[in-house]
Amino acid sequence: MSHAATSPGFPGSPASARTAAVAARATDLSKVYGQGETRVVALDSVSVEFGRARFTAIMGPSGSGKSTLMHCMAGLDRISSGSARIGEVELGSLNDRQLTRLRRDKVGFIFQAFNLLPTLSALENITLPMDIAGRKPDREWLDAVIDTVGLSGRLAHRPAQLSGGQQQRVAVARALAARPEIIFADEPTGNLDSRSGAEVLGFLRESVRAADQTVVMVTHDPVAAAYADRVVFLADGRIVEELHDPTADAVLDRMRLFDSKGRTS
Amino acid sequence: MLRTALRNVLAHKARLMMTALAVLLGVAFVAGTLIFSDTVGSAVKKASEKNLDGVAVSVQAEAADSSPDVGKDRRRTTLVDEKLADKVRALPGVQSVRSNVKGTATVAGPDNVPLGHDWQNLATNFQPDKDGHDPRYPLLKGRGPAAGNEIALDEATAKASGRKIGDSVRLATDGPVLTKKLVGIVSTDDPQVTAGGSLTLFDTATAQKLFLHPGQFDELVIAAAPGADQQELTAKVSEVLPKDRATATSGTDLAAEQSRMVASQNEALSQTLLTFAGIALFVGVFIIANTFTMLISQRSREIALMRAIGASRRQVVRSVLAEAALLGLISSAVGFALGTGLAVGLRAVLEANGAGFPDGPVVISPAAVLSALGVGVVVTVLAAWLPSRKAAKIAPVEALNTVEAPPALRSLVLRNSLGAVITGLGIATMCYVSTLKDADDLPIAMVGGALTLTGVIILAPMLSRPLVSLAGVVTTRLFGISGKLAKENTLRNPRRTAATASALMIGLTLITGMTVVGNSAGQAMDTMTAQGLKADYKIGTSAGLDPELSQKVADVPGIEAAAPLRNTGFTTPNSSMGLMGTDLSTIGKLTQLDFISGSLKGAGGNDIAVSQEMAKMKGWHTGDTLDATFYDKKKAKLKIVGIYADNELLGDSIGATSLAAPHQLVPMVESLLAKAQDGPSEGLEKQIRHALGDSPLLKVQDHADLRKENAASIEMVLNVSYGLLGMAVIIAVVGVVNTLAMSVFERTREIGMLRAIGLARSGIKQMVRLESVVIALFGAGLGIAVGVFCSWAVGNLVSKGLPTYELMLPWGRLALFVLIALVVGVLAALWPARRAARLNMLEAIGAQ
């Protein structure tokens, strides 16, 4: 499959400088909701690594725990046992304030429903994480990001004046602008038509390729997953399969396999 | 649709709570006022009925102004005497006659503090039967006064004075201070006494000596024999009375008259209270309207669905109005209960401050119940009317929209035009008012003020943009992103922000207006006291001084000059004016007396000096002669020897004491001015008091005291209005809480996202808090501005009696109001901010 991420591109380190280091890591990570009869194990002793400068997709049927894994790894939700680390930081040892700081300084987010602030302009939305941190954005990088996602002419617009695809591109720029250690994207193409979706995925892959950005994306769309370097499959709160350099067809095959397994078991 | 309405009320109970609170507080105010006035009214009426129980006819002596022997001393003369009493006693149908002497006497408490309210302190004669008892004043302890040096007191006064039977008691009538022996303590249900006065009983001869002349009485109280007709008896008594010098009134008429008086006093009080209750309810309207607007926009999908499945517009409107009526009814009922408590509490508080209401049960009239509930329901339904029309306009197709479109901001053009017209009218009216001088034009000022306020309320959404943006610059600089987001959120829905702020603005406009006018008037009085008065002391009692006492002050060593002020007046063919009799040789040393023409040199006899204002008005000049007729009908030719710059203390004209005093209807000195050689000192004040007999009624005031007195009266009026307007402010605060709670609810997802991308809980709290503060400051700022404007405009109306009146802005107070608005903003945000900070992030992000 050929992907059309042909926009100006990110300045950044050449591909050869990529290291095999790990950006985030879960070890025996478990997440349990409720107690007694209502006890639900969402994640059951999951161990997984997300490589630096890699684009990882997490897939799995509804209720498999893929969103929970992302929430735990991103510091949005508390873990029940085991370990979740971003870089060398153990998330389980952080209190709420420290977790908030960590998300602010090291994590970028892209949500399915865009989640922009309607009162702020596109540019203000993009720089919001840095405004919260009280940091000045790196002007050159910011311009490059805006250029790449093609929003130059629309920076003064409010979200309500933008199309869905444009809004999600603002969200992508917001996640990229602060150069976080890791970006978590939760079904980023779920609310988009296929063309806009392809654009957004293209930007994400380009940021990984050209700028060594680390991206972890939860999706149930095999086409979206095919943009990733690696796909991790989850079922019933466990990692069941991994696929490197996937194609959409390969991903679809695996999913069918899980589905039939699910039915027969 | 009623069932839907009921369900909606129940489903949104938390969110409707704040609205309910607004209605509830307003209704409680109304109900409290009505119940309070009913309760006190009925108690006072019962007390006066009880007091009149057994009174068939009352004979009142008329004051004998033109009697030849008046003027020598201050005692009154009546033609009601023992002979007349006997004549009445002999009439058929008369069972018994009480002959009363009535005056006032004030007892000195511990530290020489006067007890009771001096105008209410009854002094009368004890009338014992053969056993030494007076059935009207049953003895609790000791015996009735029988000699000139004995008195009896009512129980409360005796207790307050700290004196026991056998102790000596110091008391003052209007003359010199008296020392008497307390021989008895009585109980009484005389309403004058139970309402906060004291009762002093003398023996008849002593009472007559103090207040009248021997053998004279003020009133005869006649009890009828069984079977005698009151009206017939009254007619018969009337026949034996000296013509025009005494009148007989039947007990029934007297009771009717008294209850009329009670009712009218009561009405004045309850009207004032109801005005403030009305203001509180008016403020509530904004909050109710705001809530329903928000509820309807939240529910628009649901309403669209109802329309899609066949509900008509009218049904939608009716459902919303039914919901409002239900809410109004429930909150009014609770408010009524609260109001009952308020009424009981108010009475207790006033009682504790010495208001002295007679006892009686709490009266809850059906009229009070109906009007309080009615007002609550009507106000709520009216406030929900506009939002209900908005609900009806929701198109059925909106039910099918999957994407939650942000509500389009309706154009403000129509609203702004209307607001501009009304504000313009209001400002024009107030500018016109600022040229008026007559206090009778106050209604015009009130209309102008109301127009201005209404206009600004209508314009508030437009005004919010520049003003909030301005505030936003500050909040952004100080608080960074939280401040910026707060600004943006405040601007997001200008109508809502404006309505919330308007509620606060109304209260602050009134509070500011009153404060500015009060402060300016206080300053004016201060200036007058300081400028006009060169004397160190102003000496007097509320009832005036015995003329004989004035010389005694002048004789106190250390007093440089003293002059009495004795007020009377005269008419000329085309005018009526006051004449102040004083010591013309010393008055120039005691008050600022600047002559425009002429002087007081060598003045005396029939010479007078007139004020500049009077001279200008009448076209008089120095050297003119006036044909004057004094109040006592005596005529004289008065010569104008000078014209002086207006002096508040002296009034229209001044003349020698010997000119004015003989024409006073009741000979007395209003006050004495005295200047000390070496300035005022505590020792000197004591000496003056001593020279005047250490009467507890005596006020010896230096400049500071006079100023304090002015300030105290103004401060009291202000404090009462602060208290009453406080309710309106509290309701407005409830409105701010309400708006913020709604905002937080609506922005759940945004808050979740902000938390996810790294805004700390404290930042979220800060954001909500700042929004609240900005709204509160916006409302307070507008209110203070309108209040200052209106108080400027009414300046001339107020300054009529205060020539030195000038607009003085009480900067400290105004700054305090802004500070209070700030605190109000922070407090109102407490709960919504907590809620926002505690939102579960993951649920919030996913919330629809």
UniProtKB/TrEMBL annotation, chain A:
It comes from the Bacteria. Pfam families: ABC_tran. Transmembrane segments: none annotated. CDD domains: ABC_MJ0796_LolCDE_FtsE (cd03255). InterPro entries: AAA+_ATPase, ABC_transporter-like_ATP-bd, ABC_transporter-like_CS, ABC_transpr_LolD-like, MacB-like_ATP-bd, P-loop_NTPase. Residues 24-261 form the ABC transporter domain. One of its GO terms (cellular component) is membrane protein complex. One of its GO terms (molecular function) is ATP binding. Keywords: ATP-binding, Nucleotide-binding, Transport. PANTHER family: ABC TRANSPORTER RELATED, IMPORT ATP-BINDING PROTEIN. This is ABC transporter ATP-binding protein.
From TrEMBL, chain B:
InterPro entries: ABC3_permease_C, MacB_PCD, Macrolide_Exporter_MacB. It holds the Pfam family FtsX. GO terms for cellular component: plasma membrane. It is a multi-pass membrane protein. It is found in: Cell membrane. Residues 17-239, 497-688 form the MacB-like periplasmic core domain. Keywords: Cell membrane, Membrane, Transmembrane, Transmembrane helix. Residues 275-396, 724-840 form the ABC3 transporter permease C-terminal domain. This is ABC transporter permease. It comes from Streptomyces sioyaensis.
